[in-house]
Design goal:
Shape: elongated
Largest sheet: none
Structural class: mainly alpha
Order of helices and strands: H
Helix content: 55-70%
Strand content: under 5%
Length: about 90
């Protein structure tokens, strides 16, 4: 029974060591991925800022295309001659 305990302890220690190495490897990969994601996001934001500066820095405020759909914020255009008489319809 002593030899079984020694072998079992050796196997348990090897498994624990392997799990620790695997966890360390995963943590390292996650760290690299988050750094890559942050760098990509920073580059994208810089490009957007430069693009805004190139078109006058208006952004997506009033009058900018895409600010709220087509014609958002602009008054309706009136078309002359498209009015109906105030009588309420044919008699």
């Amino acid at each position: 029974t002593k030899s079984i305990a020694i072998v079992t302890n050796y196997i348990v220690a090897a498994i624990a060591e392997g799990l620790a190495e695997r966890q360390a490897s995963k943590d390292e990969e996650e760290s690299e991925e988050s750094n890559n994601e942050n760098e990509t996001k920073a580059r994208r934001l810089e490009a957007e800022a430069q693009a805004e500066a190139g078109r006058g820095g208006r952004g997506r405020g009033a009058g900018a295309p895409g600010a709220g759909g087509p014609g958002a914020g602009a008054p309706k255009r009136r078309v002359p001659g498209n009015r109906r008489p105030a009588g309420g319809g044919p008699r």
